[in-house]
């Protein structure tokens, strides 16, 4: 065995860093695998050092605190290695064509479960589902109303959907789905959360795999959200940062697919009825019936698949406290599965499937290690307990390379799906709330009940959500006191060189912890959100006709259920002027005519509000706004991660705490210049009866 000095170990570390930069310049799957292996080896080097040279403690207190930190690090390394395993070869599955004859396509039941959500939210999903392109005699749309509300039954009858209400609410969403299965007959089931509005091409794009491979029980697609989540809305750099869920749906699920371990995520998924019936219905033992159901199907030998194309879009959580509550339910459910149906035990799974499920479940144990990492410098700053028995030079030689490679390699793997250091912020926001959930669920897995995530609300005024941030405010206050204690010792106390370095190291650590805590607190500065209808950026060619026969060609800037903004040549207009917006389709020469009223026009842009007078017009607007097949293809339109830039953006996000009340966060998306377009005049389109067409329903622009 060859033992290297610290200086020699430093050379090894520098060589590994140099290899990373040399190899990392090439972009290929082999390069990614090489960098992951290199990172794992550097991390194993760090782990060996930690286990063999840093556990020399003088007191029991020091020993307990030191071992606690070591266990947190072991968890982090365990999750790092599992993540490399999951993402070693993402499958990047592409759609498969359906049989040429639609008579050979399977029958589909579309389930839209709801409990206490507002009809204004549910109706958009129902109308979107009714507009899905599939043979009418082979598809049925069902509203599964656990609230047993009369207005929902009337709406179902008016729009042509079917309505199912069961006599009780046993087992929440899972029970609702199981009841519906017994009262329907479709070969396949498309499940949509009641706010997830599908595109018209959902089934035509996704169903090919289910038809071609009879062993696939589930095809999952991404959860995409057209409204901003609290991180995007409340932080100064939020719109320039990928949403929290993009990492899972852009990287992890695609990696799971390689191992035949795609998880069911509760919505935007097609399931095979035969597979669900074979396992006795959706799992009811936990509050995350989705992942548990997929696990049970795979134990029976069924396969699952993932298609990384967003084919529906929904509402993100509006408030931070709602977001935390949703994650608490997820954590409780995944830990429940870990306790009652551990993937490492029992029959039916391959090793790759077991490890992918294990990673998903144990990832929700992050809260306790996250708190330990943040609080560790306080052990020395307050109590002079040195919980890592190592010199600053040794820390630099072993710990810094480990952190560099794990961060830099993740940036290469995650690209534009998740930015460096933002995982720490996402976890810190929830950590102190999840510590109790983690402990209680591990000890008492049957505790806890399903809760519905509230969506679709508005925030009438800017406010600071103390309920969602008070644990981190207290934590940050304690951390600031520890930092002041360390700075005081460095300035005013006569320290030997070893103590001085220890104080400096722990002060730097506490500054990093404080930055993360401040960023997490900043998310609680809720900005106003008064829009019931969120704007969606879209560039679609249209022609606007007024009742005098004038026509103007334009390109939309954004669309919503409330109206549309269109780049049009400027001209004098009469306020509240009724017009027809004609959307030019790409397929088969089809077009859609929507009635609207002009609100204003200036500087080459006109703004209209829709004239929705009946369900048919509303359905047409839904198909235009949400139903376009390419509506969400730009869901990952973010630059690739650069760790230093990401760190700087995280620091900038703290500005939200010091924003004056009522001051808006600057929207970071680039503003497009108005488009100069020609004007032409032609006679307005008329129907056979000579009347101008309004609200005509046809295929939406693809």
Automatic annotation (TrEMBL):
Membrane topology field: Multi-pass membrane protein
EC number: 2.4.1.12
UniProt main location, coarse: membrane
Enzyme class, spelled out: transferase
Transmembrane segments annotated in the record for this chain: 6-24, 33-52, 64-85, 355-373, 379-400, 421-444, 473-491, 503-523
Catalytic activity: [(1->4)-beta-D-glucosyl](n) + UDP-alpha-D-glucose = [(1->4)-beta-D-glucosyl](n+1) + UDP + H(+)
Entry superkingdom: Bacteria
Metabolic or biological pathway: Glycan metabolism; bacterial cellulose biosynthesis
Alphabetic keyword roster: c-di-GMP, Cell inner membrane, Cell membrane, Cellulose biosynthesis, Glycosyltransferase, Membrane, Transferase, Transmembrane, Transmembrane helix
Cofactor: Mg(2+)
CDD domains (UniProt xref): CESA_CelA_like (cd06421)
Domain Glycosyltransferase 2-like, residue spans: 110-280
Sequence ranges of Basic and acidic residues compositional bias: 693-702
Residue span of region Disordered: 665-702
Subcellular location field: Cell inner membrane
Key word Transmembrane helix present: yes
Annotated Basic residues bias: 665-674
A matching Pfam family: Glycos_transf_2
Protein purpose: Catalytic subunit of cellulose synthase. It polymerizes uridine 5'-diphosphate glucose to cellulose.
Designated name of the protein: Cellulose synthase catalytic subunit [UDP-forming]
Organism: Komagataeibacter intermedius NRIC 0521
Lineage: Bacteria, Pseudomonadati, Pseudomonadota, Alphaproteobacteria, Acetobacterales
């Amino acid at each position: 065995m060859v033992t290297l000095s610290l200086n020699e170990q430093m050379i090894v570390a520098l060589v590994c860093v140099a290899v990373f930069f040399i190899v990392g310049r090439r972009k290929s799957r082999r390069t990614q695998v090489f960098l992951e292996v290199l990172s794992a080896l550097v991390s194993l080097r760090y782990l060996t050092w930690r286990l063999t040279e840093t556990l020399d403690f003088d007191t029991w207190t020091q020993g307990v605190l030191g071992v606690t930190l070591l266990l947190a690090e072991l968890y982090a390394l365990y999750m790092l290695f599992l993540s490399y395993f999951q993402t070693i070869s993402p499958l990047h599955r592409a759609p498969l064509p359906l049989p040429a004859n639609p008579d050979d396509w399977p029958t589909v039941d579309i389930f839209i479960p709801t409990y206490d959500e507002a009809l204004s939210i549910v109706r958009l999903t129902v109308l979107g589902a009714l507009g899905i392109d599939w043979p009418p005699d082979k598809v049925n749309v069902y509203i599964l109303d656990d609230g047993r509300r009369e207005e929902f039954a009337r709406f179902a009858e008016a729009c042509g959907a079917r309505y199912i209400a069961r006599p009780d609410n046993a087992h929440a969403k899972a029970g609702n789905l199981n009841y519906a299965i017994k009262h329907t007959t479709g070969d396949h089931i498309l499940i949509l959360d009641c706010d997830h509005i599908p595109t018209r091409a959902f089934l035509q794009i996704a169903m090919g795999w289910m038809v071609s491979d009879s062993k696939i029980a589930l095809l999952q697609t991404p959860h995409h959200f057209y409204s901003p989540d609290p991180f995007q809305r409340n932080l100064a750099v939020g719109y320039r940062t990928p949403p929290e869920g993009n990492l899972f749906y852009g990287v992890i699920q695609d990696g799971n697919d390689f191992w035949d371990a795609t998880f069911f995520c509760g919505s935007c998924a097609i399931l095979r009825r035969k597979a669900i019936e074979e396992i006795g219905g959706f799992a009811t033992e936990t509050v995350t019936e989705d992942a548990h159901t997929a696990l049970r199907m795979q134990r029976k030998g069924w396969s699952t698949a993932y298609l990384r194309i967003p084919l529906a879009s929904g509402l993100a959580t509006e408030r931070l406290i709602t977001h935390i509550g949703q994650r608490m339910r997820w954590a409780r459910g995944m830990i429940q599965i870990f306790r009652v149906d551990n993937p490492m035990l029992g029959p039916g799974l391959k090793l790759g499937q077991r490890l992918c499920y294990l990673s998903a479940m144990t990832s929700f144990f992050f809260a306790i290690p996250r708190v330990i990492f943040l609080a560790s410098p306080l052990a020395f700053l307050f109590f002079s307990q040195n919980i890592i028995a190592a010199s600053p030079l040794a820390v630099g030689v072993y710990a810094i390379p480990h952190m560099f490679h794990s961060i830099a390699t993740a940036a290469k793997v995650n690209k534009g799906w998740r930015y460096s250091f933002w995982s720490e912020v996402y976890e810190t926001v929830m950590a102190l709330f999840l510590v109790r959930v983690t402990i209680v669920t591990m000890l008492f897995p049957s505790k806890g009940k399903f809760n519905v995530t509230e969506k679709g609300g508005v925030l009438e005024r800017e406010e600071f959500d103390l309920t969602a941030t008070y644990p981190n405010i207290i934590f940050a206050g304690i951390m600031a006191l520890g930092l002041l204690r360390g700075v005081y010792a460095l300035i005013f106390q006569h320290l030997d060189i070893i103590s001085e370095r220890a104080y400096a190291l722990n002060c730097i650590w506490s500054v990093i912890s404080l930055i993360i805590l401040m960023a997490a607190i900043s998310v609680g500065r809720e900005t106003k959100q008064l829009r019931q209808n969120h704007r969606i950026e879209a560039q679609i060619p249209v022609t606007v006709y007024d009742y005098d026969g004038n026509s103007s060609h334009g390109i939309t800037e954004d669309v919503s259920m409330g109206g549309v903004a269109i780049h049009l040549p400027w001209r004098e207009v009469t306020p509240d002027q009724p017009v027809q917006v004609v959307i030019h389709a790409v397929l088969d020469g089809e077009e859609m005519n929507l009635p609207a009223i002009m609100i204003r026009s200036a500087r080459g842009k006109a703004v209209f509000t829709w004239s929705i007078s009946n369900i048919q017009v509303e359905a047409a607007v839904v198909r235009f706004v949400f139903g376009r097949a390419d509506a969400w293809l730009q869901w990952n339109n973010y630059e690739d991660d650069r760790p230093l830039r990401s760190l700087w953006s995280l620091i900038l996000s703290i500005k939200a705490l010091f924003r004056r009340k009522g001051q808006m966060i600057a929207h970071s998306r680039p503003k497009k210049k108005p488009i100069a377009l020609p004007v032409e005049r032609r006679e307005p389109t008329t129907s056979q009866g000579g009347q101008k067409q309004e609200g005509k329903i046809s295929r939406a622009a693809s």
